[in-house]
Amino acid sequence: MADHSPLLRSFSVPSFSRVEDPSQYPALKGIESFRAPNLRQLILAESWHPSILPFPSSRLTNIHIGDSIEDVRAKLKLTSCFDILRQCVELTHCRLYVDDPDDSRPPTTFNADPIVLPQLRFFQLNWSYHDSLLIERLVAPKLKELRYEPPYFSDM
C-alpha cells in the first residue's frame, strides 16, 4: 500500500486511542506515505483528525468524521477541520459528528475565511457546540439536503 494504490476509492479508519503523532505508531508508516490517486471517500472515527495522514483532499467527494450511526463522536475541535474542508473542493457529501473537547470555551484563533464547497449536495452536522462557526462560513451553492442535530444542553 505504501508504494501505490491506484484502485483504492474508499479508506476507513476505526476508533482507536487518540493519535497526535503518527510517527509514534510504526503500523502507520505505510499509511503515512501511501498514494491513492482515486481515493474519493474518507471515513475517520473518533480519534483521527484528517490532517494526520496525507489524503488527497482536493479529490475527495465524500468525507465522514465521527460516526453518528454507531454514536462515536470525533474528539476534536470543529474549527480544526475548517482548513481541511476548504481543500475538499470536489466534496459532494460531508458528515461531521464532532464532540468538541473545548465546548464551554470560545474557540481560539482560526481561519475565518469562507469554506467554499461548490459541489456539496449533502451535509450532516451532529453535536457540535461551535456549529454556528461552520454554518456561517459554509458556501455550498448546490446543497440539496441538510441534516442538523444540535448539541444537547442539559438544564442546570
TrEMBL record:
It comes from the Eukaryota. This is Uncharacterized protein. It comes from Jaapia argillacea MUCL 33604.
